[in-house]
Amino acid sequence: GVGTGFYLTHVPESSLISLMDLNEASLNAASTRAGESKIKHKISHDVFEPYPAALHGQFDSISMFYLLHCLPGNISTKSCVIRNAAQALTDDGTLYGATILGDGVVHNSFGQKLMRIYNQKGIFSNTKDSEEGLTHILSEHFENVKTKVQGTVVMFSASGKK
């Protein structure tokens, strides 16, 4: 998702950005905050579904910051999200982002409580998400995969579409 658009305010004026979110209100809020002149496309779309054919091969980079842990299902069921993004990238494009892990990391007591509540309510679906699992689904669709765990978050980049 696009969040509030806070970080988009720091993008150079010459940049053209496409925003994708299932929620129209989030798209509108983020594009307003970023500045409409920077926005090339506002796309209301479910990331579990293939992107429209007109978007295939169109993007130099796609960011997925703090999206994957919010999507329903285990890490394997999220592989189609990675596949769909890969299809939208140019041949030399890069997918990058970060997600909160539930497995293979140590959450402090407050984090454990939040994880339990958020997963019970369906806000998160990441109790079994691990760096290994993420690396596996990224490697299904990309030749070059890098991950780095920082605390309870894994940052990732993937390029070289298969």
UniProtKB/TrEMBL annotation:
Family matches, as InterPro entries: Methyltransf_12, MeTrfase_VrtF, SAM-dependent_MTases_sf
GO biological process, one term: methylation
GO molecular function: methyltransferase activity
Residue ranges of every copy of the Methyltransferase type domain listed in the record: 1-95
A Pfam family recorded for this sequence: Methyltransf_12
Keyword entries, A-Z: Methyltransferase, Transferase
Protein name: Class I SAM-dependent methyltransferase
Source organism (scientific name): Escherichia coli
Classification of source organism: Bacteria, Pseudomonadati, Pseudomonadota, Gammaproteobacteria, Enterobacterales
